[in-house]
Amino acid sequence: MFTKLAGVAGLLVSLAAAQASTTQRVIPTLSPQVDAAPSLTPTVYDPVAPNAQQCPGYTASNPQNTSSGFTADLTLAGARCQAYGNDVNDLTLEVQYQSKDRLNVKIYPKHITPENSTQYILPSSLVMQPEWDGKTTAGDSDLALTWTNEPTFQFKITRSSNGEELFSTYGHVIVYEDQFLELVTNMVENYNVYGLAENIHDWRLGNNYTQTFWATDSGNTVDGNVYGTFPWYQETRYNAGGNTTSHGVYARNALGQEWLLRENNITYRTLGGSFDLYFLSGQNADGSSSALTTIQQFTQDCVGVPAMQQYWTFGFHQCRWGYENVSVLQSVVAGYRDANIPLECMWNDIDIYDLYRDFTNDPNTYPSPELLAFIASLHANGQHYVPIVDSNIYTPNPDNASDAYAPYERGAALGTFIRDPTTGDFYIGDNWPGFSVWADWLVQSSRDWWTSELAKWYNDTSFDGIWIDLSEPSSFCVGSCGNGRLNENPVHPPFLLPNDPYQANYNYPEGFNVSNATEAASVTSAAASQASYLASHTLLPVPVTTTQGRTEPTPGVKNLNFPPYVLNAVQAGHSLLKGTVAPNATHNDAYNTTEYYMHNLFGYQISNATYQALLAVFPNKRPFTVGRSTFAGSGRFTAHWGGDNTSTWGSMFLSISQALTFMMSGLPMFGADTCGFSGNTDNDLCSRWMSLSAFFPFYRNHNVKATISQEAYRWSSVAEASRRAMSVRYSLLTYMYTLFYYAHTQGDTVMRALAWEFPNDASLAGTYTQFMLGPSLLITPVLVPNVESANGVFPGIGEGTNWYDWYTLQPVVAQAHENVTLSAPITHINVHVRGGAILPLQAPAYTTAETRANPYSLLVALDESGQASGSLYLDDGESLVQEATKLVQFSYTNNCLSTTINGTYHAAPPLANGK
């Protein structure tokens, strides 16, 4: 077993060896000009930027009733404004009462031709578009829309039952330009808004926050744009003297956009497209409304319910960037087995590749016969294997015959790659393997080619699922930097890699200097030595930064790379060009759609293409894909991990908020890189994080090169914490699987905010230091270093809710709203069962298959009146279309347990006992 000291010593030895070298390593790389990034001032911080609310707005006329609502014409109500684009003079307003609980407002250009339609309208063939149910009218809707032309067109959405105002543009103008849309809604005082994933931010978004949506490869940037785009929010109102109310707003638009949450209003801005707004009442049959119902309405009706996952995917997964060869994988598998820590699936990062190229195995370190034998040994033990697939395709050097790369050649022959608009040739950016291209998912030939390549690779790498990375899509240079330079390939990325000289990582979690003072001193010294060397040596060319001012709107012209409205993007200089395929790159569809409109959809499209490809490889088996960049609706075909987080307590804490936003966004198969991806963990943080992540749906440990190893068996405390937490998780696998059945069939959440389950308790509005797994389990993790206790509340106590300790089954004694201090030694995480729950359990074993073969038992936790209920869903755990299923409903009342069974699926394990 490695110890933390051994890990630190290893880093120090590596540094000493590098410093002993008398010659500086020469690293071939891109020129600084190629990596040049423009520097821009985000509009939200630009004091001289135009105020779009000074534009004239629109006047509505010619209203016409339809079977589902009405339409009207909107005409610019004054001189052209040209705030951040060219004003569109004539618009169409379309209002549809689509269902009892959903109202749709569309605003789009009146004059649309097939040639320009994609610049405004997101096609339903690409992203699900909710439709009228064929029967709802304004007279029987939960919602009502009213409008006025005084002084310009404004509208508001209210509840039909009581007139509660949910959304209102009154007092504001609507702005519609070819590269800029703006709409402002008034908000109640101290509003509670949640969602707008993906963000690394507090759970309650607050009223001084800007959410930017521009998918980017920039790690887990706090309060900045990251990988995903889910333009929807849910609002909760704690009404004085009445029940809490909830509603939701979904803006179906995939372009770069920002949501400005301010004290009295929310401003919604996009770089184009259309207004396609869906208002969700959140109402239940009894007229009340709730967050959980609002979320169901969004998931079921707006973006589609999430895919049902294979049973084995709920086991524990292990990965690292830095597993050098198959022997290392074998040693990791053996390490987990020797420590008796359940391991369900081994993963490979880009180490597997031959020269970082997709669909290849390094013949020296991952030869296919050896890798296939390793995977076969996993399968023989009921375990699984998942490799990475990057989103870029290496472009071979035309001057080097030995540099041939068949996946590129096959794709190029089909013309399937995105193109450079200046030359018409393929757009060639840069990524891990060197100059690279990207598939064009708008054409069928690309999707067919992708399926073919994955099927070919499966013959050499018998995977069980696919991990999709860099799907923003990520490019390491600015523009089509490889055009005319392919004879330099393969080029090194324009930055140093973790395993390059003088790139040892000396970051450790907060509190490490307290718990490991001697080692911390050694780390500080080594870090200072490395920093001193780097300060006096240039290992890479210094990138050139250019300055690009805000562009002015020009009639008849669109500036796609530098639109007049500058998003507050986190990439260098806030440039849309940095770190990705340029916005003006073109696709091969009939309209040569530009990446400006498709950027936020690349991850969505590649995940969908991979899902379909896996169906071809494994007919009728549920595909398992895990993607990094996502969009509203991605949950229908992919899971998601939280991206490049850090080994810090803050990152672990914010992973809960990040998870909750995905639970409410129709993508419940979510998990963070446990123990942290970037930086070094320690035994304290990793123990707590392995315990916490055991209650996230997707459970994976993953970290980067040039840091210490962090497999769970490396420290005795982490090993014991993992065994204990996994014992609880694996006991509850059937409960978690049943939660996913309800998520898949009716849009339920899996992890839940306390505020969702206890909606009338205003004190829980911002709480995410605790969360619930389904309706029945309360999880209270330790989120700070060097402590042996955790603080938490027990919602509902004093109002009829009972809580029981999972481990002892003893009832909790606490006062209403009391912040209770709970004992939490380093190997323990507090789990409590809510009274009124019946939980089907199975004795935990080493794999999910072994666990699933064990007898069932029932845990009955009685509520205040001595009753309880629960359910159990059963199927074969893998088929897309089931031959048989079974849903068992349990009820306990009057000291009698009863069941209702629907379905014919036969489960071999018996019901052994209850408690």
Topology record:
Layout: H1 4-20, E1 37-39, E2 58-65, E3 69-76, E4 90-99, E5 102-109, E6 143-148, E7 154-159, E8 165-168, E9 175-177, E10 180-186, E11 192-195, E12 209-213, E13 232-237, E14 245-251, E15 257-261, E16 265-270, E17 275-280, H2 291-303, E18 316-318, H3 326-338, E19 345-348, H4 368-380, E20 384-390, E21 393-394, H5 406-414, E22 429-431, E23 434-437, H6 444-458, E24 466-469, H7 512-515, H8 517-536, E25 545-547, H9 595-598, H10 602-617, E26 625-627, E27 639-641, H11 649-663, E28 670-671, E29 673-674, H12 683-693, E30 699-701, H13 716-731, H14 733-746, E31 751-752, H15 754-757, E32 771-773, E33 777-780, E34 789-792, E35 803-805, E36 820-823, E37 830-834, E38 837-842, H16 848-852, E39 856-861, E40 868-874, E41 886-893, E42 896-903, E43 911-914
Parallel strand pairs: 1-25, 18-19, 18-30, 19-20, 20-24, 24-26, 26-27, 27-28, 29-30, 39-43
Antiparallel strand pairs: 2-3, 3-4, 4-5, 5-17, 6-7, 7-8, 9-10, 10-16, 11-13, 12-15, 13-14, 14-17, 15-16, 21-23, 22-23, 31-32, 32-33, 33-37, 34-36, 35-37, 38-39, 40-41, 41-42
Helix pairs in contact: 1-8, 5-6, 6-10, 12-13
Domain Glycoside hydrolase family 31 TIM barrel: 306-739
Family: Belongs to the glycosyl hydrolase 31 family.
Pfam families: Glyco_hydro_31_2nd, Glyco_hydro_31_3rd
